[in-house]
Amino acid sequence: MSALVARGVRFEVCEITLRNRGLKKEQFILDARFTPSGVVRVAQLQNRERYAYIKP
Predict the structure, then answer these.
(1) Residue 29: inside a domain
(2) For residue range 4-53, what is the model confidence (pLDDT) as tens digits?
(3) What are the φ/ψ torsions at residue 49 (nearest 5 degrees)?
(4) What pLDDT sits at residue 51?
(5) 33 part of a folded domain
(6) How many domains does the chain contain in total?
(7) Cα(28)–Cα(12) distance, rounded to whole angstroms?
(8) Which of 21, 41, 51, 56 is the 20 to 30 Å CA partner of 35?
(9) 50 conformational bin, left if phi > 0, alpha if psi -120 to 50, beta if neither
(10) Closest among 9, 50, 55, 53 to 29, alpha carbons compared
């Protein structure tokens, strides 16, 4: 994952999911960032930054 981060990839972890699954931020790699709501973050990226979410 560090190699991907070095190439500009960002990993964001949803804090709601952490809470619902009983996980702690300390369990994740240092390169991970945290966002209060993953759904809201995806919507922000789609609307403001022109990203696309593809669901198989």
Answers:
(1) yes
(2) 989 998 899 999 999 999 999 999 878 889 999 999 999 888 888 788 87
(3) -110, 0
(4) 81
(5) yes
(6) 1
(7) 10
(8) 56
(9) left
(10) 9
Which has more pLDDT, 2 or 17? 17
The domain in which residue 40 lies consists of 2-48
pLDDT at position 54: 74
Our CA angle for 7, 46, 8, nearest 5°, is 5
Cβ–Cβ < 8 Å for 40, 16 = no
Which two structure tokens, joined as six digits, stand for 35?
Answer: 């966002």
Q: How far apart are CA 36 and CA 32, in angstroms?
A: 13
Q: Residue holding tokens 């804090």?
A: 15
Integer Cα distance of 44 and 27 in angstroms: 26
